[in-house]
Design goal:
The chain has about 120 residues and is of the alpha+beta class. The protein has a single domain, classed as Beta Polymerase, domain 2. The strands form two sheets. It has a three-stranded mixed beta sheet. The protein has a two-stranded antiparallel ribbon with strand order 3-4. The longest helix has about 35 residues. The radius of gyration is 17 Å and the shape is elongated. The termini are far apart.
Length: about 120
Amino acid sequence: MDYLPEVLANHLEEIYKLNRTRNEQIILQMKEINATLNKAGISPIYLKGTGNLIDGVYSDIGERIIGDIDFLVPESDFLTTAECFKNEGYEICFPAYLPYDQMKHYPWLWKEDVAADLEIHRVP
């Protein structure tokens, strides 16, 4: 029995396929993040959507729409982590509204040729 109009079902299927492809790219980007941080002796803990994605919470990686890559680093490595990614070509999307040490996470970092922005957390 069909529960959705065919045009809607087809539209949702297309969104799912696009999202699955994007999440595959995000997983590759996370491997690059790990490589960059491992060189600096920093181990990230992925949070929220990306953490759940690599933890296998979803039966299929296309099920979850990811907005950005959130990860936690030790507070002592917070600014060093940001500098690592600035050196990799990432830029701040929006100016900070507080001093960095008072923010829960660093301002979003953006890079043109990657799937997702980065959100570096110093506290959960």
